[in-house]
Amino acid sequence: MSRTLSPISVPYRVVERGGSIVFTAVILSSGASRAFGPVGGLVGVALVGLALLALIGYEVTYYRRFEYDLGADTLDIRSGVISRRNREIPIRRIQNVDISRNVVQRFLDIAVVDFETAGGSETEASLRFVDFEEAKRLQREIGRLKRGGDETGDDEREPPATEELFALSPRELALVGALSFDVRIPGLLFVLVSGSLPAVSSVIPMEGSVIVLALGLVGVALAVLLVAWLAGAAAAVLNYYDFRLTQVEDELQYERGLLRRYDGSIPLDKVQTLTVVDDPLKRYFGYASLRIETAGYAPGSGESGSEAAVPLASRDRVLALANRIESFGTPAFQRPPKRVRRRYAVRYLLVLGALTAVLYGVDAVTADALPWPPYSPVPLALLAPVAAHLKWRHRGYWLGEHHLVTRNGFLRRRIKVVPYYRIQTVIDSRTVFQRRWNVATVTADTAGSLSLVGSDAAAVDVADADADDLRVTLATRLRESLAARRGWVDGAVDVRGADTNDVDDADVDDADVDDADVDDADA
Amino acid sequence: MNRLHPRIRVVWAGQATITATVLGLVAFAVSRLALSLPVWIPLAVFLVAFGGGVGLSLLRYRVWRYEIREDALYLERGVFTRVRTVVPFVRIQHVDSSRGPLERLIGLASTVVYTAGSRGADVAVPGLTPDGADDLRERLKRLAIRAEGEDAV
């Protein structure tokens, strides 16, 4: 049975697109009337009227000629006014069904539905706009069909097991906002303020003393800091207002947002990596966040490819939730060898040295135009050993029974959990400097698109021999875990006989060759 | 462990020469138009880039190795950063054999292995004879299919 978009989508789209047309038209027509007199103005208005009529006609036709069909195996969408497009998306390829509504859309009870598939870098298909009820129905139905339901049975089976895992309390929401500012900003501001002091003092006539001016600058800096922080906090609060995470059988569904409300899903069997993120401030208060990375694009989130499963909660709760999704247990991290601290200290000292050299150079060229003396980075050298130790302390990896867990970073610490069967390639790399210190970095590449940004699960700066072992071990465990999972598939199918339930470990990679073959073999 | 065909050094040296020429021309343009540098600067830039590039090509050839192991394709490469990559057969999506323009001139080819990973998405083995590249492609394809199917039934 073919369905179509909500009728309200026609006026909504007309208004959405018409707004800009009317705006330009008003400008043009006022210009025309000035140039050509009242006749020009009338002609302008007439043209605008025609354009609007054409737009309305187009949108009505689009709505009339739009059809979609949710079958047992595919989602068919037929659309287009001038060039027709017929799109069939296999249900199994659909990874997420995401619903979003802004304020107006919520008032009109319509929504945008986006269908995401694995491995794409943009939305596969999108319905603008359907009734919210219909959107939820689509989300439910596609979830049910993916779980192996058939076309007919509506409520013959029990409703899927739903459990609310997490809801962001107002206090936690406030904390999300409060803790959302970047730890590096105060340092940057200090540099800017101290740097601009002499410049400003030479411009503004000094009636008071330098101290007053300095205080004034500090006041301005604090005001800027406050505004930036409030803006960040407001954005975070708007984004995560009334955040809820629910588990529906093998899928996580989340809702969030105040102005623009998102109803999204994270299919558990597509999870590539779990990341527990924190920073020194969060750690001090005992909080952390959880992000889930799936293969493919995830709309409506800050970092593409990953969704915040838990924006902020107490650390224990985050770890418990993470374990629910992938039960990795409690990691016992193995740190890099201690000599690596010297490596980091040397690195920081070299950076400071280079900075000092640059400052001396600039000083020589511009003849004392710098506000700070050129040797000013030197005192920071005292911090180098401390920073090196901290960096080393928060680094490590752990080979769990079914997962690789890595930990990296001090200011932005990420604990990444990768199930062995999600590992794609294993990359061992050693730079010139690492070879000197006899350490190496082993990276487990996964299909999640977040890895492109560089925050892969990596055991950084491990001893040479350990790296060699790790490389071999990861490849072996990958193979073993894949074989084990295939064993489960066979076992499940054998037990259920002719049931066509396919355990969908279908990743981007595993060609689902064998389900049909296995069924034939059994029947 | 297999090494690449020695003629790949010519391909890499060729690429280095092109880069060196471009850099030399840029230095020449800069010395003519912007700063006034001594006449020998562009030539020096070209020579340094050329020498460095050729040296790098030779070193790269010495490091590059690949091997088909029991469950994975193993690659070793890189002069400044030594990278060892393990591509399990079960993760291979598809395999291409390809020939770029320089490679065609020299009579060589490469085999490119695609996985679903983001960092190691396509892994290329250059410096193979055209037949060798096709053979490697077929071999990897068969190994990938076998790895896929062997535990399923």
Can you describe this structure?
The complex is a heterodimer of chains A (523) and B (153). Chain A has helices at 9-64, 103-108, 132-146, 170-178, 185-203, 210-240, 280-285, 315-325, 339-366, 383-393, 432-437, 464-496, 514-522, and strands at 67-70, 74-79, 85-90, 94-101, 110-117, 125-131, 162-167, 244-248, 251-256, 261-267, 271-278, 287-294, 306-314, 396-399, 403-408, 413-419, 426-430, 439-444, 457-463. Chain A has 523 residues and is an alpha+beta fold. Chain A has a seven-stranded antiparallel β-sheet with strand order 6-5-4-10-9-8-7. In chain A, strands 13-12-11-16-15-14 form a six-stranded antiparallel β-sheet. Chain A has a three-stranded antiparallel β-sheet with strand order 1-2-3. Mean pLDDT of chain A is 80; it is low at 298-304 and 496-523. Among the domains of chain A are: 1-64; 173-240; 339-390; 475-522, no CATH class. The relative contact order of chain A is 0.08. In chain A, a hairpin with a 2-residue loop joins strand 8 and strand 9. The longest helix of chain A is centred in the first third of the chain and has 56 residues, at 9-64. With 153 residues, chain B is α+β, with helices and mostly antiparallel strands. Chain B has two domains: 8-62; 66-149, PH-domain like (Roll), CATH 2.30.29. Chain B has a three-stranded antiparallel β-sheet with strand order 1-2-3. Chain B has a three-stranded antiparallel β-sheet with strand order 4-5-6, with helices on one face. The longest helix of chain B is centred in the N-terminal third of the chain and has 26 residues, at 8-33. Chain B is elongated, with a radius of gyration of 20 Å. Classes of the chains: A alpha+beta (523), B alpha+beta (153).
Identify low-pLDDT runs of chain A.
298-304, 496-523
Mean pLDDT of chain A: 80
Number of β-strand runs of chain A: 19
Roughly what percent helix of chain B?
Answer: 40-55%
